[in-house]
Amino acid sequence: MTVKKTMDHGAYQRKTKAMTEEELYYTMRDCKQAMEANPNGINDGYYADEINYCSMELYQRRQVLLRSSPYWVNKRR
After folding, report:
1. pTM of the model
2. Is 58 exposed, middle or buried (0-12, 13-18, 19+ CB in 10 A)?
């Protein structure tokens, strides 16, 4: 018997904030491989959510770095 995974979206988003970049990339790669191995699997939605939240966290971190760069700070004046 297979059981469909359910995600607590808020808790998972908080979890990604504590993950390193390597962990985020590894999780995304692992989920992609799981989805490719079983394209019509019961947990595809769960894995897609994991990829989405990991990529959102990486995007947010890049935005913080970009906005703190001297180029961005000088452009805002």
Report:
1. 0.83
2. middle
Domain of 52 in residue numbering reads as 21-67
Domain annotation covers residue 45:
yes
- Any domain includes 6: no
Written as one string, the DSSP assignment of 35-49 is HHHSTT-TTHHHHHH
The total of structural domains in the chain comes to: 1
Question: What is the CA angle 25-27-32, rounded to 5?
Answer: 95
Q: What is the pLDDT of residues 4-53, one digit of tens each?
A: 889 999 999 999 999 999 999 999 999 999 999 998 899 999 999 999 99
